[in-house]
Amino acid sequence: MKWHQAHTSWFFETFVLRPYLAYYKPFREEFRWLFNSYYNSLGEEIPEKSLRASLSRPSLDEVLAFRAHVDGAMEQLLEGQIHDDAARRIILGLNHEQQHQELMLTDIKHAFFSNPLRPAYDAAPFAEGPDVSPSEFMWHRFHDGLAEIGYPIDSTNSLDFCYDNETPRHKVYLEAFRIANRAVTCREYLEFMSDDGYARPELWLSEGWEAVKKQKWRAPLYWERDATDSSGWRIFTLRGWHPLSALLETPVCHVSFFEAGALARWRGCRLPTEAEWEHAATGRAILGNLLDNGRLHPAVASGDGLDQLFGDCWEWTASAYTGYPGYRALPGALGEYNGKFMSSQMILRGGSCVTPASHLRASYRNFFPPATRWQFTGIRLAA
Ligand SMILES: [Fe+2]
Fold first, then answer.
1. What is the pTM of this model?
2. Of 33, 47, 283, 377, which has fewest CB within 10 angstroms of its CB?
């Protein structure tokens, strides 16, 4: 948590204050490399990522003092005339900080699960929603034809924001497709497990099957056997342990791309492409079970429309992370923000129950390596 706090402060110091605030005095010169995450073009060698969690110094007090120093300088900068380039970097810095706020919650969940005491981040129980019946599984059909995806940037507003990887907006041809009305539930995932889903190589991509054997995957991350529950399992959440039987209708989460794909094949379906997903989500309000409602865990779908597109779980797509036609990374070191990760990762869409609503768009592209499970990652079926 200290590292996230220091690194998000470092972002403003490095990309806004050093270049744009005259006479800015850095808090501590070594922090320029110590809290650099991955920007190689800044020059210095970057500390090994695995050290982040084990640096006991600087202390929390010093990190908070660094933050206060950066905040003070940002206020000073904001009192004067702001160059458009600086303003764009501030907006990027705020969006970057939102990403780290989400990462903090997913890291806390992982850290607390790794702790033998298994503490709860928030011991308060899930708020009881109105008594709703869960949505039946249904398909939503879309015709074939040309669609446009990518962020429609407002060229008359120099501060209109999206990440560089959401551009350029471009045409794609979509065959007719069907997309599920909601995410795959824990109940449906348990059926896949009960049907030996983890023991049938024909359902798995080769790399996924290797992961199943090597990592001994038998269930999603945070599931643990529990003979006292009728389902045989319990789930670790940010609100501590819950019997699976109480969460059966909620979306399954913390599955890898490989598990998502195996379940889809088992059902005779597939994952949506990112273009299909975006086409289905375009024009819909960014409403859903997001960080803002404070639940911190996926919730039951109960609507009768196309539900859970935003919030609950990031949805794995069948699309590899690559640049759109004509993609250009931002100039300079900030070009390393997104562009250099365009290999060996898959696209996820829609945000999760720990993503702030104001962070998302229909065109938003998240990406992770296919074996990743510590984010709130789930499954929506397509055909
Ligand atoms: Fe970062």
1. 0.97
2. 283
